[in-house]
Amino acid sequence: MIVWVNGAFGVGKTQVAHELRRRLGRGWIADPELPGFGLHRMLPPHLRGDFQDVPGWRVGVRDVLGRLDADDATQPVIVPMTLVRDDYADEIVEALRIGGHDLRHVTLVATPETIRRRLASRGGAVRDLWAQRQIDRCVTALTAPRFARHVATDGRTIDEVVEDVAAGLDLPLAHGRDGRVRGFVRRRAVQLRHVRLP
C-alpha cells in the first residue's frame, strides 16, 4: 500500500508522515523532495524552478514508489508530498493505480493564515519564501474532489490528525500517543532533519 499525504507546503505533511509511521510501528517514508532537491543541485540557480516540472522527477518518483510497494518490508509506503497539478497527479498517482498499486490519498488542509504561521515557525528559510508564494495556489487546487479525502489540521494536534488519517485509511495504530516532552523532542528532530538549504 502507498499512502500519499498531500497538502500545501507547510501544512504538516512531513510531521504527520513520521508520526503515522511511528504509531503504525511499520512502514517506510519515501520523500520525493530528496530527488527533487538533487535535481536542483545539478542546475545553476537561474535555471531552478519547481522540480516537479522536470519529467525525470515524475518518472523516477513513480518508478521508485512502484518498487517500494512491491516489497513487503516497506509496507505501507508513506509519501509526504504536495501534488496539485492534475496532469502530474495523472502521471504519478493514477499511473500507479492503473499499474495495480493500492494507492490511498489524503490531503491535509488548513487556512492560509495557519499555513503562513507554520511556515514562519520553521525559521524563515529561503525555500519557505517560495512555499509562502504557493499557499493560495495550493489551497485552491487541493479543494478539488480528486484530492479528497481532506483532513482538517487547523487547531488540531499532530496526534489528532494522525488518528483521523489512520482511521480514514483503515490503518490500525499499534502505538499510542507520545508524552508532551517526548513528542516535542521527536517533532523538533524531524523538523531539523528536513531543513533543506537552497
From TrEMBL:
<dbReference type="InterPro" id="IPR027417">
    <property type="entry name" value="P-loop_NTPase"/>
</dbReference>
<dbReference type="Pfam" id="PF13671">
    <property type="entry name" value="AAA_33"/>
</dbReference>
<keyword id="KW-0067">ATP-binding</keyword>
<protein>
    <submittedName>
        <fullName>ATP-binding membrane protein</fullName>
    </submittedName>
</protein>
<keyword id="KW-0547">Nucleotide-binding</keyword>
<dbReference type="GO" id="GO:0005524">
    <property type="term" value="F:ATP binding"/>
</dbReference>
